[in-house]
Every structure is written in structure tokens, then in C-alpha cells.
Design brief:
The chain is mainly beta. It is built from no helices and 9 strands.
């Protein structure tokens, strides 16, 4: 199944870097999201960010707990982000953490794509399936 919609971000809270050497900085950021469309609800994202002296080369890893409703089923689930920008060439993988879903979403598996429009708007496409927990 595929869910689509938009989301808003808020509260970019960057902590002071926990490691900063030779132009490479490691930091921690938290933010929140509000989802609209087939997935409705809110989330909190906690990410570790690495920046380098090359402006377009950086990465982040994150965990995000999403609470709300997916195509009418309520519950929560966790997704893991792995993002890299290599001199501007970007890759992003957002996957459901297996067996992290609760409520009517138990057994959720899937991957989410995020699209950032030229005007800065955010949208998502979430390809998912529901199966028995633990399978």
C-alpha cells in the first residue's frame, strides 16, 4: 500500500557540537513534524549530524517516533533515517524499525521517501505493508 501527503517541520533545536575537530563537526538536533494526508499525526525526530569543510558534504542519522493515524489505523511507529550528501549528490533512506509499531499499526513495515519542493514544502510517499507482529 502507498500513503501520500505533506508534512510541516518545527522547532529545529541544535545543541552545541559534541565533537569539533579539523573542520568536521558532530552535533545533535531535535525537531518536530506534523503530517497531513494519508498519514496524519505528529512526530519528534532526534538526529546526529556530521558536517565537513565541504559545504555540500554532510550526513545525518536519526530516529523518529510518529504517532497518529495511517489510512484510518491509529498507533505509533519508529522510523530510522540514513542520509548522505556527497558533494551535493544526495541519498536518503527512511525505514520503519521492525516491530516498533503499536495499536492498529502493529506489524507495520515500510520505507518512506521525502520530497522537498523548490518552494521549501515537504511531501512524503510511504510504501508500507501490515503483517502479523514478529513476521
Amino acid at each position: 500500500m502507498t500513503a501520500k501527503g505533506t508534512f510541516d517541520t518545527a522547532g529545529w533545536d541544535a545543541k552545541p557540537p559534541f565533537d569539533d575537530r579539523d573542520g568536521v563537526t558532530l552535533g545533535l538536533v531535535t525537531m518536530s513534524k506534523t503530517f497531513h494526508g494519508d498519514l496524519t499525526g505528529t512526530s519528534v525526530v532526534t538526529m546526529m549530524v556530521a558536517t565537513t569543510p565541504v559545504e555540500d558534504s554532510r550526513s545525518y542519522v536519526a530516529l523518529e517516533r510518529i504517532e497518529g493515524s495511517l489510512d484510518g489505523r491509529s498507533g505509533s511507529f519508529v522510523v530510522q533515517h540514513n542520509a548522505v550528501s556527497d558533494a551535493g549528490e544526495q541519498s536518503l533512506r527512511i525505514s520503519v524499525v521492525p516491530d516498533s509499531a503499536t495499536g492498529e499499526l502493529r506489524g507495520l513495515r515500510g520505507e518512506m521517501d521525502v520530497i522537498i519542493a523548490p518552494d521549501g514544502g515537504h511531501s512524503y510517499t510511504f510504501d508500507y505493508r501490515l503483517s502479523a507482529p514478529g513476521s
